[in-house]
Design brief:
elongated, mainly beta, about 10% helix, single chain, 3-stranded antiparallel sheet, 11 strands, 3 helices, about 190 residues, 4-stranded antiparallel sheet
């Protein structure tokens, strides 16, 4: 969620009194501070884009992991496992453990206990064991797969497909859909 740097002191006080449950301050009346747009409409919100906190090298300016994949037990709400999700090739080649990467897009889970996911900006597609987070298969996509895969079957054989279009934040672009066939009955 973007920051709200445009809020004035009165608006900040109103938000703080709500969050901190300061009932006396909540009774104060705050002036209408709508901003008028060029077309004459009014809005309370502005957007300054996706501003990221990065190092001079372009990496996230916080401690890793910079992206994770987490399994949650929906019966209890507890984490079953969590792994760093995605990696930087330049760190991997130096023997640095996976740091995780920014990721967008969801997974699909099969009845056989496999998680299929692209989502990471490293342009990899992975099959992960649903019980423990172990990466069972990993392959390169033609571009980043910021999409949720689809699973389907034809004549009893199961397939998984993902759109690998790349990212609006730079990197390689593609118009590819990549499909994988799961092993058939022997």
């Amino acid at each position: 969620m973007p920051g709200f740097g445009h809020l004035n002191d009165q608006e900040k006080k109103a938000i703080a009194s709500f969050i901190l449950n300061l009932t006396a301050e909540q009774k104060e009346i705050y002036a209408d501070t709508l901003k008028e747009e060029a077309d004459g409409s009014e809005t309370n919100y502005t957007f300054t884009g996706y501003n990221k906190f990065l190092t001079k090298e372009g990496y996230p300016a916080i401690s890793p992991p910079w992206g994770t994949l987490t399994a949650v037990d929906l019966s209890t709400g507890l984490h079953k496992w969590q792994i760093p999700f995605g990696e930087y090739e330049e760190f991997k080649s130096k023997g640095i453990p996976p740091t995780g990467r920014e990721n967008y897009g969801g997974p699909v889970v099969t009845a056989g206990g496999l998680i299929f996911i692209g989502a990471s900006d490293d342009a990899k597609f992975r099959a992960i064991h649903v019980r423990n987070g172990e990466i069972l298969y990993e392959t390169d996509l033609p571009a980043t797969g910021f999409a949720t895969p689809a699973v389907y079957s034809v004549k009893g054989r199961q397939y998984v497909v993902i759109a690998a279009g790349g990212s609006k934040w730079g990197g390689k672009k593609s118009d590819a859909y990549v499909a994988f066939a799961l092993p058939g009955e022997k």
